[in-house]
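Good day; I would like, with your permission, to put a structural problem before you. The record follows directly beneath this note:
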Amino acid sequence: GKNARRRKRGRAGVEERRRILAEEPLCRPCLEQGRTTASEEVDHIDEDLPDPLWDARANKQGICRPCHKAK
């Protein structure tokens, strides 16, 4: 995607994704729609934030693949 260059890479990125998926085992968008679906990926909620805010934990959510793809 357009923000691929800003994503954490390597061990730091793997650990952060593992931690977020542990914190949010269910897809946040599905939960908002009354569905219970496992999170499979980590999503940056707002893609248009400046770098420090874009990669902040508050801008990330657990999400299932179908929801992430639809986004």
The first strand starts at residue 41 and ends at 44. DSSP finds four helices and two strands in the chain. Residues 10-23 form the longest helix (14 residues). The radius of gyration is 12 Å.
